Structure formats: structure tokens, C-alpha cells
Task: structure prediction
Amino acid sequence: MLKTRMKRVADRGNHAVRRLAEIEASIANLSNEDLLDLADIFKAEPRRPIGDIAFAEMARRNISL
Result:
């Protein structure tokens, strides 16, 4: 039982990491205009994780709102 539970928890963690990587890749693939729209939606403080990713990508591209 413990092995099964540990495997399930590990699988869930691996899935979460893969899903986050997919989300980050999706944001990185947005056009500048779409990225600015996304950042505008999530610009409220305290900034949410999606906003953090969007603003980091904006900084990488050297664009701002």
C-alpha cells in the first residue's frame, strides 16, 4: 500500500512538472500582442504565477505594457 501511494504521489508530481513546462512553453510561443494581453490580465498585485511567467517572458523579449 505504501509503495503504491508513494508511486502515485511521485507520478502526480511528475505530471505537475510536465504540465507547468507545457504552460511555460505555451506562453513563450505567444505573439508579442497576445503576450501583452495576457500580462495585462494578470498584472494585479500580488501577481499570480501565470503573471510572473508572462512578465518574465516580456522581460526576455524586452517589451513592456
Q: What stands out?
A: The helical segments are 2-28, 32-41, 49-61. The chain has one domain: 1-61. The first helix runs from residue 2 to 28.
